[in-house]
TrEMBL record:
The keyword Cytoplasm does not apply. The gene is fghA. PANTHER family: S-FORMYLGLUTATHIONE HYDROLASE (PTHR10061:SF0). It catalyses: S-formylglutathione + H2O = formate + glutathione + H(+). This is S-formylglutathione hydrolase. Keywords: Hydrolase, Serine esterase. It comes from the Bacteria.
């Protein structure tokens, strides 16, 4: 593992790293904030999945999360949003497909299947890498994210509930099978079999869970979000959770859009939500 940079931050350490990913088959970058409590032992860890076009730096720079993480004793981790440099024709053509748009699924359609394996990377390889190199307790690990990353957080938590023990999202894409962003990406990465798409759709997943996801899910949504009606559709997830009996707190906020001003406003609530569940384990 290569250290790209490290910085003192709220008596803890903010670091940026790169490693050779066996899952992706390419170098992958990620960032880690370690709170001061990590100097004395392993701490719970919270993985954040960023949205379209973002990198491993975006959340750490813009969200303002480190101050509260230092208070609570939570490690924060943000992986990159896709492989980089796969040399696939067209991977840099569109901002919402290819580079920066891995969608946290494992592609099955060529030529994407070789490297675009973000589900396996986030759910399996990244936690093991963290446990090997950092003082974090992956038995107390939560997940959250924004937009595309909110989709990733919801679906990965539903698939791996014993791995991700707490869950929240900002403005998530909850029904990718029914909105343009998801339809484009799923067709490109998975092909035309819509039954396969539903495996990666939070609305579909929550209704088919053997039992509800343990612990309440927190979702925040801005009502001035330019993507609310066309891409996000939180009311669909709300209805699906009600049907399944899944505990959900969905908060709607007037005047807030899709960006990091919104996230930074409510980030403390999310960290405290996760800490309450992770420290209880």
């Amino acid at each position: 593992m290569e250290i790209l940079s490290q910085h003192g931050c709220f008596s803890g350490r903010q670091g940026f790293y790169r490693h050779a990913s066996s899952t992706i088959g390419l170098p992958m970058r990620f960032s880690v904030y370690l709170p001061p409590q990590a100097e004395h032992g392993k701490v719970p860890v919270l993985i954040y999945l960023a949205g379209l076009t973002c990198t491993e730096e975006t959340f750490m720079i813009k969200a303002g999360a480190q101050r509260v993480a230092a208070e609570l004793g939570l490690a924060l981790v943000a992986p990159d949003t896709s492989p980089r440099g796969a040399n696939i024709d067209g991977e840099d053509k569109d901002w919402d497909f290819g580079t920066g748009a891995g969608f946290y699924i494992d592609a099955t359609r060529e030529p994407w299947a070789k490297h675009y394996k973000m589900e396996s990377y986030v759910a399996c390889e990244l936690p093991q890498t963290l446990a090997e190199h950092f003082p974090v307790d992956i038995a107390r690990m939560g997940i959250f994210g924004h937009s595309m990353g909110g989709h990733g957080a919801l679906t990965l938590a539903f698939k791996y509930p014993q791995r991700f023990r707490s869950l929240s999202a900002f403005a998530p894409i909850v029904a990718p099978s029914r909105v343009p962003w998801g339809e484009k990406v799923f067709a490109g990465y998975l092909g035309d079999d819509r039954d396969e798409w539903t495996r990666h759709d939070a609305c579909e997943r929550v209704t088919t869970l053997a039992e509800p996801y343990p612990g309440e899910i927190l979702v925040d949504q801005g009502l001035a979000d330019q993507f609310l009606e066309t891409q996000l559709r939180p009311e669909l997830f709300e209805a699906a959770c009600t049907e399944r009996g899944q505990p959900l707190t969905l908060r709607r906020h007037a005047g807030y859009d899709h960006g990091y001003y919104f996230i930074s406003t409510f980030i403390e609530d999310h960290l405290r939500h996760h800490a309450q569940q992770l420290f209880a384990i």
